UniProtKB/TrEMBL annotation:
It is found in: Membrane. Pfam families: V-set. Residues 122-219 form the Ig-like domain. GO terms for cellular component: plasma membrane. The chain crosses the membrane at residues 295-314. This is CMRF35-like molecule 5.
Amino acid sequence: MKTLVLLLLHASLQLQCDKKQITAPLGSDFLLSCSYENQLLSNKYWCRGESRTTCEVLVDSEGKTRSTRVHIVDVRRRGLFVRVVDLQKGDSGVYWVGIDRPYADIMTSVSVVVTEVPVSKPRLQPLVSLIEGSTCRGGPVTVRCVCSRGTAVRYSWFRHTHPEDVLLQNSADLRLTCDSLQLTCDSLQLTCDSLQDAELYCSVRNEVSSERSESLRVNILPPADSHCRYVVHMPGQPVYDCAVSTTAQTNPPTSCHTTGEIQPDTTNQLINATETHLLLRVFTGVPLWYTMLRWGSFASLVIFICVFITCAKVRDKHAKRKRRRRRERRVGIRGRPQSAG
């Protein structure tokens, strides 16, 4: 028994690695460095299995067994290196670094544990510019849930309700349209008025942790039945003022909400003003104040040219009159009879 222990101790001294246990996240790589003695010309290998006698060789230094993700490099007196890339979840287990010998191989075990990376708090990113006011015309808006860290991340979108939140879909992208908002109303058996100040959020999770994003609010603008209009309020994103102009503010604009009772005439005037402003932006592509300034400058230039031409004509007429009077005076002087001496 003592002889066997001494042999194993001597073998362990002949082959030593810098790590006995390796813990690495999913998808990462690791490098194992080993040193050995007096076995320069022997074959080195990397095998997997609980027992050193039954482990499966994955790769060796002589190239008899190859692998796409495992590489072994024997640099003789400078040591032995094992590199494993693109770690998978099933790579966890017990491995062995071995050196061939005629009677008993020199081997040392290494334990590998592959873990998942916890997810980070997701952020919301619109795929179209909210400052263009497309939602006020009923256009679609896609909001993407972005998680910068984590492995095997799963995405879900929820609507915050009481007593428990409602699952909308299992994907990273949420597409908001008039039809989808109306479909949400029907599926939840609610009226569109109840969707005002609706809170939506994204949830990310894996087997290690879970996080949720900040909420975005969707407001249906009246009248929602005849012409669908809505506004998306997202943290850190500008908000389009549907009635006046484009503003970069984080708080909801007062012109996009109905406070108190509004008379039908006032509502129609607001709708007509909104449609006129939006049409001007659609056909011109520039703000209303810039259009008025440009056309005002052009009109001033035209008026100046007209005044200048009129003044030139008047001045020319006066000059012609003066020249005609001078000629008449000269003719009169010449035609006057001279008096006798």
